[in-house]
Design goal:
heterodimer; A: mainly alpha; 2 domains; B: 434 Repressor (Amino-terminal Domain)
Chain lengths: ~200, ~130
Amino acid sequence: MLERIFLQYREKLLPFIKEYRVDIHLFIEKEMGFQIETYTNLKRNYSCYAFTVVGEKYIFVDDMLYDEDAMGKKLRFTLAEELAHNIIHQDLFAACNSVEERILIDSSLTEMEKDRIELNAKALAGMFLMPRELIEKIIGELIKRDILVEGSPLCDQIAGSICHDFDVNFKCARMRLRNLRYHHRTLQQLRNEYSEVD
Amino acid sequence: MTNQTFGDYVRKERLDRNMSLRQFAKDCGFQPSNYCHVENGTLNPTPVQVEKIATVFGFEEGSDSYRKLLDLAAKARKGVASDLQKLIESDKLIPALLRTVEDENVSPEDLRKIIEGIKSGRYKESSN
């Protein structure tokens, strides 16, 4: 279902990809027409890094997250996650015009609903930052160069090897790989899959 | 866009060049969160910052784009564009010219004619 939603945006995303890195920032602004604004102490005061005013197409981001270089990867994921919320939870957040209203909406949801919403948004965000075909391409290179080894968890190995190419955190890369079910595969299976492709 | 603000103009030029907001802010020497306020109009950049923006865009001094950037920045801070300010300060005749226009109630039509006359090179010929 999410993959199908992502496919609607895939073509539009292509011009914003340089090798493996998706310029999600520019995609959100230029292609999706959102304006990104910073919000002082958003995280400290409201325990969230970002929120969106859906109708007005504004994404507000915590100013510290926006300014600190060390938070660059986290910022990229946060922006992708807000974009995902906008795409799949537009109806839910349609009436949200402020952070207080967003919190009010969140508080009206059950823990299970909140978890499902967050998981879906994170999964779609991962698709935007790490499109499947690029992951397959880079894994093919890892197999060719014989970089992966038996014995340590495959998802972690791949995530560690590719997260810098995609300019995402290790955690984000691992989540995306797990969503693509790489944790159910062995290295031998991967080698077989890629030798068939060759 | 008739009511284009400085923020609107900079944002459009930035996106036309495929520059993301955060990267552009850094290239121009702004703290990214501060630069957001420049584009949304809640913070007016200093003339030095405007010059830096012009440089990053690659605007040539004196070009239409450069002058538009300076004019919109000046309008935002309700001041005079920095290139005009320099001109006024560097040539005593410029303030005299402006005051004469004011004192003599020269109409916009006549001013346009004077500008066209200057552009046509008429005054260059007579001074030679």
